[in-house]
Write a structure and sequence with these properties.
alpha/beta; Rossmann fold; Dihydrodipicolinate Reductase, domain 2; Alpha-Beta Plaits; 3 domains; six-stranded mixed β-sheet; 14 helices; 18 strands; 25% strand; binds L-homoserine
Length: 411
């Protein structure tokens, strides 16, 4: 008999407990072991739940039980999760986490700790909810040199944008609904401002490029300023506005990660990803492009990924997986966002097309004159931040205001 423990019984933790109990026979068969979910660590009691008698308040109970071999960490946040996970690994207990904040901030340290103690730190659930992406990057695609990853990595914001654009729901109601469905973070600012997607692209970048990418090094902008009218105009031009988390390897060998709302062309699969679904495009020299798709948030989709990691550990016994990246505090391998270049969608105050063409050289797609005499257009060539600044200044000198701008996702 092997014992399992779950730290944190919120949305994901309770999902792990319930999915485990529901599919226990199947899971035991797949692991070839008798299993018992023995402990649930939480400050709260759950007197009405069938697992009420498993709740403990002290991590030492779990640490001191030698029969506990695998622990799920679903508490969220860095503290006290970091100390608890570190202690579990030091006790030789493998950990599976859904906590992207923890992995993005301390993944390098915890992976090293796991290796030192001949156990594993798994985090499939930390990116893309139900979507297998960590294991494919680390294993199935390990023969590739990666050149780019781009995806929709936050279910809450994708759900909100969809509700606003397709159902005319206002921002607050859409957010409330995402919270009710268990998609949003405890503090939904992390979703709205792009911090959650940033943590996830940090994890994917660290894994793909082998050096720890810290959230502080990544340009991040959320969806707070996205206006419905731009979503509609973009739609008329054949694009959707999506919160994109992306990283690209540049010719100078550096990487450029960023999170920002972008205009995505309709024939790009990412533009068709709706609701709470996430999708991740990976580009490698062997595979060309591969796409991963599935539910990116929610109780059972995320619990499925946490349990998948636990099951792998139980099948492995104590084989240590060398899933790792370099612990590096010098972030000179990350290119400054000033080098980011893209074609742009613009909405400007009334302007004549000839004047715009003079400023931008050429503008792509047909222009749309709206009721309010605004002009919407796409630039034909990519602009980097310096060129973008210069163009905005020239527009201002010509008394043309930039009312909105979105970079276009490269195909
Ligand atoms: N708040 C996150 C999201 C949960 O909406 O994607 C899954 O990581």
């Amino acid at each position: 008999m092997e014992k399992l423990a779950v730290l944190g019984c919120g949305v994901v933790g309770s999902g792990v407990v319930e999915l485990f109990e529901k599919n226990k026979q199947l899971i035991q068969k797949r692991c070839g072991k008798q299993l018992e979910l023995a402990y649930i660590l939480d400050l709260r009691d759950f007197p009405d739940k069938p697992y009420a008698d498993k709740v403990v308040k002290d991590i030492q109970v779990i640490l001191n039980d030698p029969e506990v071999s695998v622990v799920a960490e679903c508490m969220g946040g860095v503290n006290p999760a970091f100390d608890f996970v570190k202690s579990c690994l030091e006790a030789g207990k493998s950990v599976s986490t859904s906590n992207k904040e923890l992995v993005a901030a301390k993944g390098d340290i915890l992976l090293k700790k796991a290796k030192e103690h001949d156990c594993n730190f798994f985090f499939e659930a930390s990116v893309g909810g139900a979507i297998p992406i960590i294991r494919p990057l680390h294993k199935c695609l390990a023969a590739n040199e990666f050149s780019a990853i781009a995806g929709i990595l936050n279910g809450t914001t994708n759900f909100i944008l969809n509700k606003m654009i397709k159902e005319n729901m206002d921002f607050s109601s859409a957010l409330a609904l995402a919270q009710e469905k268990g998609y949003a973070e405890k503090d939904p600012t992390a979703d709205i401002e792009g911090y959650d997607a940033c943590r996830k692209i940090c994890i994917l970048s660290s894994l793909a490029f082998g050096k720890h990418v810290y959230p502080e090094s990544v340009y991040t902008k959320g969806i707070r300023e996205v206006e419905l009218k731009d979503a509609k105009f973009c739609g008329q031009l054949g694009y959707s506005i999506k919160l994109i988390a992306r990283v690209q390897k540049l010719d100078n060998g550096k990487i450029l990660p960023a999170v920002l709302p972008m205009a995505v062309e309709e024939d790009n699969l990412l533009s068709q990803v709706n609701g709470v679904y996430n999708a991740i495009m990976v580009r490698g020299d062997g595979i060309g492009k591969a796409m991963f798709y599935g539910k990116g948030a929610g109780k059972f989709p995320t619990a499925s990924a946490v349990l998948g990691d636990m099951i792998e550990q139980l099948q492995l016994e104590h084989t240590c997986i060398s899933q790792t990246w370099q612990n590096i505090h010098d972030n000179s391998f990350i290119e400054n966002f000033a080098s980011f270049a893209a074609k742009y969608y613009f909405r400007t105050s009334s302007a004549d097309v000839h004047q715009l063409t003079e400023i931008f050289g050429e503008i792509q797609e047909k222009t749309i004159s709206t009721d309010e005499e605004e002009t919407v257009f796409l630039t034909a060539s990519p602009l980097n931040e310096r060129e973008l600044d210069k163009a905005v200044k020239t527009l201002a000198q010509n008394h043309i205001q930039v009312l909105a701008k979105y970079p276009v996702l490269e195909s």
